[in-house]
Amino acid sequence: MVINLGENSSLLNQFIAELRDVNIQGDSLRFRRNLERIGEIFAYEISKTMPFSTKEIQTPLGIAKANLPTPPPVIASILRAGLPLHNGLLNYFDGAENAFISAARVYNPDGTFRIQFDNLSSPSIDKKHLILVDPMLATGSSMVLALNALLERGTPEHVHIVSVIASEDGVRYTRENTDPKMVTIWTGAIDPELTPKKYIVPGLGDAGDLAYGKKL
To answer: For a Cys-Cys bond, which of 102, 133, 136, 183 suits 119, CB 3.0-4.6 Å?
Structure first.
């Protein structure tokens, strides 16, 4: 299933517009904060699909029953661009466990690239809801690589892939290379093209650089 929250009118569209805007992107603090706020919106929407159980809460005047998510999810992000989005989800899923994946593009002189996977730090994901985040779903190859590495830590109840902006090719590749019964793709926009270097068009550029500064 692919859920594009940007198809509906909401504040999410404003935050994504600011992420894309070259006149605003120079403010890295605002860029990170918008990614964080978008993560909070995704957390709220994803929470509606998760299992809940009824618990009794003692108030000063009696007992109240509340439906609470059980158990908390595991939030996993691909470093480094995924960190602000990760923090936004963590702001809402207070008890979440956390995983971090080091994976990056390594370009060849001819402009082609491979995904270099360096490290994974993760708890068990067995029988839990796994939320895997990366702001941009371009080709989908790094997302699928990260998910396959995580699946070595257990079999989750469900996987939620979260990207602020996806490409049509990235969505297609991810759907073709993951279990459709296990995976839901959440996004805020689906863009039509990729450049020869596989950046999303119109996209927003390099999310990691815009959030944390240019790298060598």
So the answer is: 102
Looking at residue 201, its pLDDT comes to: 97
54: amino acid identity, one letter: T
The span from the CA of 176 to the CA of 105, in Å, is 21
Q: Phi and psi (nearest 5°) for 161?
A: -95, 125
What domains lie within the chain, and their CATH numbers? 2-51+69-212 (3.40.50.2020)
7-39 burial, b for 16+ CB within 10 Å, e for fewer? Answer: eeeeebeebbebbbeeeebeeeeebbbbbbbbb
Summarize pLDDT for 9-37 with one digit per residue, the tens.
Answer: 999 999 999 999 999 999 999 999 999 99
Give pTM, 2 decimals.
Answer: 0.90
Nearest to 89 by CA among 40, 34, 37: 40
